[in-house]
Amino acid sequence: MSAVVTYLDVAATTRVEPRVADVVLHWMTEEFGNAGSRTHEYGTRAKKGVHDARSFLAASVDAKTEELIFTSGATESNNIALLGIAAHGEKTGRRHIITSAIEHKAVIEPLLHLQEKGFEVDFLEPGPSGRISKEVVLDKVREDTLLVSLMHVNNETGVIQPVADLARELRETATFMHVDAAQGYGKVPEDLKAPIDLISISGHKIGAPKGVGALVTRRRGWNKVPLEPIMFGGGQERKLRPGTLPVPLVMGFYEAAKVFQESRSRWEREARDMRERLLVALEKTRFHVNGDAEHSVPHILNVTFDGLNAEALIVRLKEQVAIATGSACTSASYTPSHVLMAMGLPEDIASNGLRFSWFPGQVADFQPEKLVETIVRMQPEAS
């Protein structure tokens, strides 16, 4: 790929930070022990490294070390949380689940599976703001509500959901709270320190390698979240995620989280500056921002340009920027964004939303004015 192409798709994945890559390589080639090996120093050092990583990542959301297990990423974490709590729902007669229609497919599809098994699932729609109302969720809670599952930050619009407020409201009830924090971990840290029962995290959204994440299972007093394993064999990770731990990936996740935490204030400031530069440049076009700008992360912007086909625009812009439609990660064939459709936006807007997302330190040389010149040339005259 040409070096002049600016990568504006960090909501899909991020570049591994060089410092992180060095750590991963070290744990692949020098300290390559299995954390489960107890008879030699290679295993002992790997086990200590994993413990340090677990402690740091758990503390970043105000959880205890033993409340975090490592997974392959947020998709696996979501599946363990949602499918793993189903048995408790069946035993207790609590078969009602509340979620939103704008969730990632990694939440929607496991819940559709549970629906086929006899669970009742409410898929709430947010309206044009893209933000689910806390009051609407609470109004849906019933005596038999097992779980509320709501994403932290929407992966298409960047809209922040009221997960912290909901967690505090639900903490004294029998209803558990699950949050898919793939997009929000590290970026809106205070929200995840709320008493959320289950938090799914993905490393590759903050500069870690792909293939590693975590699930936080926060106790309520002495009581564990009643999860059953969905895989078996070996008993690792408190019997919830069997298999040999990928120590290099775990240590890379640990390092990436440290790097991001150290630079977060600068990251937020520069992300907001980039957003402002982009919005100012786009004023020369006719466009709509999709989602509540007042409750959004600074590094994701979803827009639709009047009279322009999103796929055609991506093709025209591919020598300048790497961007995506909101539905690009969920389907090989192009369909309207289920997120934008659930927000009640017209199909021509929902079918042509473009997501710009950036990592501030990696776009310093980006000139949005050149991008806008191409858009203006393509955009038809206003009727």
From TrEMBL:
Cross-referenced SUPFAM superfamilies: PLP-dependent transferases
Enzyme class: transferase
PROSITE patterns, per the entry: AA_TRANSFER_CLASS_5
Enzyme Commission (EC) number: 2.8.1.7
Cofactor: pyridoxal 5'-phosphate
Positions in coiled-coil regions: none
Similarity remark: Belongs to the class-V pyridoxal-phosphate-dependent aminotransferase family. NifS/IscS subfamily.
Record's protein name: cysteine desulfurase
Species for this entry: Streptomyces sp. 900129855
Upper taxonomic lineage: Bacteria, Bacillati, Actinomycetota, Actinomycetes, Kitasatosporales
